[in-house]
Write a structure and sequence with these properties.
Layout lengths: L1 H9 L3 E6 L1 H7 L7 E5 L5 H9 L8 E6 L8 H7 L3 E3 L1 E3 L6 E3 L1 H16 L3 E4 L22 H5 L3 E8 L1 H4 L11 E11 L2 H6 L7 H25 L8
Parallel strand pairs: 1-9, 2-7, 2-8, 3-4, 3-7
Antiparallel strand pairs: 5-6, 8-9
């Protein structure tokens, strides 16, 4: 991740404005619970930005679920594999000719991630499940499946709100690096997922609990994005 930090430091045409980083540096993991980190998904750049958003002393314990296609990209793919991050597996859909998640392989990797969290690690993923190709200021519905982890295990949940990433690395571009202003907001949704669930459906129904946490995280990130946009921070316009 030090490589990513260096890249963004020397790429002066990419302006990154940060919110909540000092708080995250002090408080992330302070409860003693494992940490999960979720964010909206605008660009292939998002994975790199997750890595530069986490406090450096926690990076060694972090695993990110990243799109499998990133493994084919120079430098980034090598870094992801070398750091042991988990790639979302895709396979060809024989009926449509498109691509779909390989559910069997994905289930095994989710178990890997769960075991990583059980051992006190940090996990990060993008619950929209795909790049947002619609309005970048409107977060897509969060898939509840990943939130079975914080439903089963008592963890801290942290959120990342990204604005402007798609300007730097457009969805259809093979590579990123275009001039852009990017805003990143990081904040705690809760210090205990089980305490948060106690204010809602509780722990008995895992599916209901997962949906509750997914909706809470999605709404919090949506509010953060709206706040950044209201401050004139969308696509570098102030």
């Amino acid at each position: 991740a030090s490589t990513q930090r260096f890249v963004f430091c020397v790429a002066c045409w990419i302006r990154i404005r940060k919110e909540g980083f000092q708080c995250a540096r002090k408080m992330m993991g302070a409860s003693g619970r494992p940490v999960v980190l979720v964010g909206n998904h605008l660009s292939f750049l998002d994975t790199m930005l997750v890595l530069v958003s986490v406090p450096p002393h926690l990076l060694a314990d972090m695993k990110v679920f990243a799109a499998g296609r990133l493994k084919r990209m120079p430098v980034l793919g090598t870094l992801l594999r070398a750091m042991g991050h988990l790639l979302v597996p895709f396979k060809t859909d024989t009926q449509t000719g498109g691509w779909e998640v390989d559910k069997e392989v994905m289930a095994r990797r989710q178990l890997q991630l769960e075991e990583h969290i059980r051992q006190g690690g940090i996990a990060a993923w993008f619950p929209e499940g795909k790049l947002n190709d619609q309005n970048p200021l409107e977060v897509l519905q969060f898939r509840a499946g990943g939130f079975s982890l914080p439903a089963k295990l008592d963890v801290e949940i942290w959120c990342l709100a990204f604005v402007g990433n798609q300007d730097c690395w457009p969805r259809q571009a093979a590579f990123g690096g275009a001039p852009a202003t990017i805003d990143i907001g990081i904040f705690s949704l809760c210090a205990s997922s089980h305490e948060l669930l106690a204010t809602g459906p509780g722990l008995e129904d895992e599916r209901e609990a997962s949906v509750f946490l997914a909706d809470k995280a999605r709404d919090a990130i949506q509010n953060a994005i709206k706040r950044l946009a209201a401050q004139g921070r969308f696509s570098g316009k102030e």
